[in-house]
Design goal:
about 350 residues; D-Maltodextrin-Binding Protein, domain 2; three-stranded antiparallel β-sheet; about 40% helix
């Protein structure tokens, strides 16, 4: 019920913002842009695909193509290089690249609360972090939840050295878990959780990183600094159309799921999985710091906490990145003066 009340509140706020700021009139010729996604089409992409199918981007003069990706790192690099105009990628990955000199920003947040979780089988008896003591987990190489396992352990009162680790690639990790050859695995509520529950026809136990006190801004819309400087109106139109698409997808999820399958015709995902993925995404559209802000707004304080946890657990050099170097709210509908940072 809290989510429903919040979305109604934001609907009014967004409509008011549109009335004040106006909607950009589409040019006689549409501007073609690509948004490079992080992976295959899945539930968190629902607003973007809805915006394309239902003409919300076209209304603002944009002909948008949503292209599948090969991971957040690759997407951020193509956006920074200008190969793709926009990208849907992970905020923590952006922070790490920014420390190396890459110039791009997240202009709109979608997964503002981390979707990272630990998964266990329903019959495992593992329902709390302390139940992991002595258990064996599959630690995927380079996977974000595994990198921040130390932060999860600290926030949960668990000795991180008390678990047994098997280092594997991500497909092997997931297969070992489904075959019950390891006691726990890692993943995200918006991707692996619905997929694995469909495969096992069961309700998996989950241990949430967010519940352990971890703030880590996850996926949102990225744009390269150079492209944004040269094309501010295109960036603004894309950001504001995406805000409208999020609003529409929250208000009418069934239509949003229909649009997903209209666009992602070759997807192997079932409708129940995509529906569950979008439902999980809706839960992560805000943080405590942004609950009274428009969709897409990210808080500098949340970015600072993300940076701090990466400094402590992911070897991010201290002082190399600031919230302002990786994020901005200046293109969003309803962003107040203090939000344009």
């Amino acid at each position: 019920m809290r989510e429903i009340k919040t979305s109604v509140c934001f609907s009014a706020a967004l409509l008011a913002a549109i009335a004040v700021q106006g909607v950009a009139s589409p040019a006689s010729a549409q501007t073609a842009v690509t948004v490079r996604l992080d992976t295959f089409y899945y539930g968190s992409h629902v607003p973007i695909l809805l915006g394309i199918v239902d003409g919300l981007y076209k209304k603002r003069g944009l002909e948008v193509t949503a292209a599948t990706g090969r991971g957040s790192a690759n997407t951020i690099q193509t956006v920074s290089a200008g190969t793709d105009q926009f990208g849907f990628a992970d905020g923590g990955t952006l922070v790490k690249f920014a420390a190396q000199g890459l110039k791009a920003k997240q202009i709109l947040g979608i997964l503002e609360t981390t979707p990272s979780i630990i998964l266990t089988m329903p019959e495992s008896g593992i329902k709390t972090a302390k139940d992991l003591v002595g258990k064996t987990g599959g630690f995927g190489i380079g996977s974000a939840p595994e990198q921040l396992f130390g932060a999860f352990a600290k926030g949960s009162g668990l000795d991180a050295t008390s678990v047994k680790r098997v280092s594997v690639d991500l497909p092997t990790r997931d297969n070992l878990f489904m075959q019950k050859q390891i006691d726990f695995s890692f993943g995200y509520t918006v991707t692996q959780l619905p997929l694995m529950e469909e495969k096992c026809s069961c309700k998996l136990n989950t241990l949430s990183y967010a519940a352990a006190g971890i703030t880590a801004v996850a996926n949102g819309i990225m744009v390269g600094d150079d492209y944004a400087a040269k094309n501010p109106e295109i960036v603004r139109n894309f950001a504001q159309a995406t805000q409208e698409a999020i609003e529409a997808a929250v208000k009418n999820p069934q239509r949003a799921i229909d649009a997903f399958f209209e666009y992602a015709k070759d997807t192997k995902l079932s409708r129940p999985v995509v529906t569950a993925q979008w439902a999980e995404t809706i839960k992560l559209l805000h943080t405590e710091a942004t609950k009274d802000k428009p969709y897409g707004y990210t808080a500098p304080s949340d970015w600072q906490k993300t940076i701090d946890v990466l400094i402590e657990y992911a070897d991010l050099p201290k002082g190399a990145v600031t919230p302002a170097s990786v994020s901005t709210n200046e293109y969003l509908l309803g962003a107040t003066a203090d939000a344009k940072k």
